[in-house]
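INFO batch 0412 | record 1 of 1 | parsing
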Amino acid sequence: MSTIPEPARPWRPEDGPGAEVWTWPYGDRPALEVWSAGRWRYASVMARQNWADGSVRYQVEVALRGDTMVTVRTYQCPQPGLRKGRASGSEPSRAADEGYRKMPRRA
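INFO prediction complete | emitting tokens
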């Protein structure tokens, strides 16, 4: 049986240089699956963080209880309780994807 993954702590100045952050287009994000409340939960990847020490962390949106309450968590990979869920067909980018936040223009 898988165990519930531990969220990663935030970056601190004593960790060295800041992380290299990669994002995907909002409509084509990859996903992880997170073991929570006895089931694998779909977790859409918001960003991948490559830390200076070589570790990798994924910032995800996930409904940990299987309800409609989606939370943002960051997990260091690999660890028990996390597995690959879905690949993206898009290349990641170092630029923030803010396109989904824009309001449509009025005619």
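INFO post-check: The mean pLDDT is 89.
INFO record closed
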